[in-house]
Automatic annotation (TrEMBL):
It comes from Cudoniella acicularis. It is a peripheral membrane protein. InterPro entries: ESCRT_assembly_dom (IPR037202), Vps28 (IPR007143), VPS28_C (IPR017899), VPS28_C_sf (IPR037206), VPS28_N (IPR017898), VPS28_N_sf (IPR038358). The keyword NAD does not apply. This is Vacuolar protein sorting-associated protein 28. Pfam families: VPS28. GO terms for molecular function: protein-containing complex binding. Signal peptide: none annotated.
Length: 235
């Protein structure tokens, strides 16, 4: 009585498949995400940044759970942070990356521990007093380590006087200061917090960005105060 019709899925706007286009697609051919070498390098660099951020977050979790030793954590964290900064020195990568918050939003990343570590720019074992400070002489401290820490303070202050004001000039020197101090004493001292604050402030700057004249005066005052506080712990 009624003729049975074959059912088809509706095709909006009377869509007719383009068989010519389909014929040009090879299912066995590798899909290219980029056309040029520069585009491939850019994608590879952004993928590396993504991997570093994820790894940093997992590393921080492992350290908080005592699943990794302090020395291994410090070495790996320091290496990852250096790799992160090195990749972003490329102008094309930095332009595409924009900033950490933008990158996280674009790729839907939930990495609070990595975010904080990148913001500070140093392993937590460096910014906090070490529990492995060497104690070998009569005063409870290794004389060689004291000398190294003193020299690092002086080198940093001399750099300010010589006009070395760029972030990429000051940050490594100040990192040396806090690391050498941590090897000498695990005690907090007057001005130590200022060293960490300046490390964080410098880390937020672009590599070639320079501190202002007012910042130089404040930085020099804070470092002299920290140096005196450091020496007071040795008495």
């Amino acid at each position: 009585m009624y003729q049975t019709r074959q059912a088809y899925a509706p095709t909006p706007h009377s869509y007719i498949p383009n068989t010519t286009l389909y014929a040009t697609i090879n299912p066995d051919e590798e899909v290219k995400l980029s056309e040029t070498r520069a585009e491939r390098d850019l994608q590879d660099s952004l993928a590396e940044v993504f991997s570093i951020i994820i790894t940093l977050d997992e590393l921080e979790k492992a350290y908080l759970k005592d699943a990794i030793s302090e020395s291994d954590y410090t070495e790996i964290c320091d290496r990852l942070l250096k790799q992160y900064r090195a990749i972003l020195t490329d102008e094309a990568v930095a332009r595409e990356f924009v900033d950490l918050e933008t990158f996280k939003m674009e790729w839907d990343m939930e990495v609070p521990r990595a975010t904080e570590r990148i913001r500070i720019g140093l392993p937590s074992t460096v910014t906090a007093p070490s529990h492995n400070a060497t104690t070998t002489n009569n005063n409870g401290t290794n004389g060689t380590l004291i000398l190294e820490a003193t020299q690092d303070f002086i080198t940093f202050l001399d750099a300010l006087k010589l006009g070395l004001l760029a972030k990429d000039q000051l940050h490594p020197l100040l990192s040396d200061v806090i690391q050498s101090v941590n090897k000498v004493t695990d005690r907090d001292f007057d001005g130590r917090g200022k060293i960490v604050q300046w490390l964080i402030a410098l880390n937020q700057m672009k590599a070639t960005e320079e501190v202002s004249e007012d910042q130089v005066r404040e930085l020099e005052l804070d470092m002299n105060s920290a140096y005196q506080g450091f020496k007071a712990t040795l008495k």
